Amino acid sequence: MSSLSQLLFWGARRVACSTGRSLLSKDSAGWPCVQTAGKKNSLDLPVLNEEELEEHFVRGSGPGGQATNKTSNCVVLKHVPSGIVVKCHQTRSVDVNRKRAREILREKLDVLNKGEESDVIREKKEAEWRKREKKRKAKENLEKKKLFKEAFVTDSKQDET
User: Fold this and answer.
1) DSSP 42
2) In terms of Cα–Cα distance, which of 51, 99, 109 is closest to 75?
3) Residue 116 β-bridge partners
4) Residue 15: which of 93, 94, 91, 120 has the closest Cα?
5) How far is it between the farthest Cα atoms of the chain?
6) Exposure of 152 by Cβ count < 10 A (0-12 exposed, 13-18 middle, 19+ buried)?
């Protein structure tokens, strides 16, 4: 089973992730994680029908102490037809979390519907490619510096003799 088909297979059941990681990484529960909420250049995402959504507010977890543990500002959004569940607790504001959960859900539905042609996957692949290129160039520059330093040291030793 290819990594994309695994993503879509698990995504049809439940995809919930609160951190933006690699396209095919898994969150702590072992579910595939695709999240790029906040990207403004994805224009053709599917429209959500509010009748198809179930929304719950639960208490969040993580750092924040009493303010986090006593307030129900974590949004759990379920798209009933596909079974996709999104949990968003990025801020203390319920309204902002509701908005971000809907953005994430729209992106996940786009990945489910379009597969490899999805803007979300294309952006993730481009970002990973840019990261690899940046690492390659940094490694290349480090090698050049090392060679220059070695050449400089050998030249200075020859000048001394």
Assistant:
1) -
2) 99
3) none
4) 120
5) 85
6) exposed
